[in-house]
């Protein structure tokens, strides 16, 4: 019954390179039931259409010979490896290789800093000062290339359009206030 | 293709007119944006360009407060100001300037990309910056073209619909006898109390 559920669904891309003949394994869930003075704790199995991972399976993020790297913008992929509070699942659970796990952690950090997970953060997440502004990353390793850059600015500037949120409203506003 | 007539006259006017372009700076790198804006301010996008003919266009940049910088550049990029007068030197990080005036970073980026020549002050006069989408009526009426953004704006997790999520393939495969509770947030047990150097744990 369970195997027919797996075959009825359209073939998933990541399964195409390795066909497994095992039945779709289920995920277990702990259920507590209280009746009077007795509490029954049971493990209930729920069927999962995705087949269980075998020890000889390849890392889920290593895409054979394709030069495709995980990036901070791949939100839907990163979400699958994260907990609801924004932390990353351990390697023992997901079964990905060490280098991919490190890359995943870096991408998740970059996505959090870029504000791409508004529903998966803790309320104490630091968004002070420069962290409020938009940030983009060229690659996952670019967070390690830290160097102070001196840029030449100009005193030459003219502000044609005043905005209500401006810090400096001009000398006339100062005199009237 | 006649060179006389009303249609030919209006085509000539359109060719030599000064156009107003609109560009959205939302999540765009400041300097890459400045390069594109400078390209249009100078008029290099026109086949009739010449450095001596003033054939540049107006560019209206919108959502300047959402302009992006690479990595930690908001903290690391220090702007050095020097107007050659006493006490005219200052070193200010980019985030401080952006907090005070959201349009200044985009202004300085385009000013730099215009090169170091005598016409850049003339060209920068045709740049119109707005921190968000609010702008005066006459600017809205003048805009005739929208320029394409350089970088893709990344989608947040809340921007995806439930159908898109369901259609996306599942990459994670858990082993046999996997408990759902292992994917949930667990209460932190606190930091391991490591004794200070030189002291043994009592």
List keywords for this structure.
heterodimer, A: 177 residues, alpha+beta, two-stranded antiparallel sheet, 23% helix, flat, disordered N terminus, B: 202 residues, alpha/beta, four-stranded parallel sheet, 8 helices, 8 strands, 31% helix, 15% strand
Structural commentary:
The complex is a heterodimer of chains A (177) and B (202). Chain A is an alpha+beta fold and 177 residues long. Chain A has helices spanning 2-8, 75-80, 91-94, 98-114, 171-176; strands at 26-35, 38-47, 135-136, 149-152. Chain A has a two-stranded antiparallel ribbon. The radius of gyration of chain A is 26 Å and the shape is flat. Mean pLDDT of chain A is 82; it is low at 1-8. With 202 residues, chain B is of the alpha/beta class. Chain B has helices at residues 6-16, 30-42, 73-76, 94-100, 104-113, 120-124, 137-142, 162-167; strands at residues 20-24, 58-62, 69-70, 77-82, 89-93, 127-129, 145-146, 178-179. In chain B, helix 2 links the parallel strand 1 and strand 2 (58-62). In chain B, helix 2 packs across helix 5. Chain B is flat, with a radius of gyration of 26 Å. Chain B starts with 5 loop residues before the first helix and ends in a 23-residue tail after the last strand. Strand 1 of chain A pairs parallel with strand 8 of chain B, so a sheet runs across the interface.
């Amino acid at each position: 019954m369970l195997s027919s559920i797996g075959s009825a669904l359209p073939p998933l891309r990541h399964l195409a390179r390795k066909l497994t003949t095992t039945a779709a394994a289920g995920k277990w869930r702990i259920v507590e039931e209280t009746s009077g003075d007795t509490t029954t704790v049971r493990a209930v199995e729920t069927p999962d259409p995705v087949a269980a991972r075998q020890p000889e399976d390849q890392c889920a993020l290593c895409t054979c010979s394709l030069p495709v790297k995980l990036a901070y913008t791949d939100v839907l992929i990163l979400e699958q490896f994260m907990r609801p509070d924004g932390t990353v699942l351990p390697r023992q659970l997901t079964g990905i290789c060490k280098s991919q796990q490190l890359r995943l952690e870096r991408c998740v950090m970059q996505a959090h800093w870029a504000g791409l997970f508004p529903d998966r953060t803790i309320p104490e997440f630091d968004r002070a000062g420069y962290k409020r502004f938009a940030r983009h990353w060229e690659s996952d390793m670019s967070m390690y290339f830290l160097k102070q850059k001196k840029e030449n600015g100009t005193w030459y500037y003219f502000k044609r359009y005043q905005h209500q949120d401006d810090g400096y409203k001009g000398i006339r506003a100062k005199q009237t206030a | 293709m006649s060179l006389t007539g009303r249609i030919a006259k209006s085509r000539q006017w359109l060719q030599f007119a000064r156009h107003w372009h609109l560009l959205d700076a939302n999540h765009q790198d400041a300097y890459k944006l400045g390069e594109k804006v400078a390209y249009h301010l100078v008029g290099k996008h026109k086949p009739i360009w010449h450095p001596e003919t003033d054939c540049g266009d107006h560019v209206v940049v919108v959502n300047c407060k959402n302009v992006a910088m690479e990595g930690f550049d908001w903290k690391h990029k220090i702007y050095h100001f020097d107007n050659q007068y006493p006490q005219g030197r200052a070193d200010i990080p980019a985030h401080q300037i952006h907090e005070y005036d959201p349009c200044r970073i985009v202004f300085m980026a385009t000013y730099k990309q215009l090169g170091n020549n005598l016409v850049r002050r003339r060209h920068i006069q045709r740049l119109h910056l707005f921190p968000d989408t609010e702008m005066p009526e006459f600017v809205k009426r003048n805009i005739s073209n929208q320029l394409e953004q350089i970088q893709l704006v990344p989608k947040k997790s809340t921007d995806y619909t439930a159908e898109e999520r369901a259609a996306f393939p599942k990459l994670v495969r858990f082993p046999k006898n996997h408990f759902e509770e292992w994917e949930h947030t667990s209460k932190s047990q606190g930091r391991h109390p490591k004794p200070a150097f030189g002291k043994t744990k009592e």
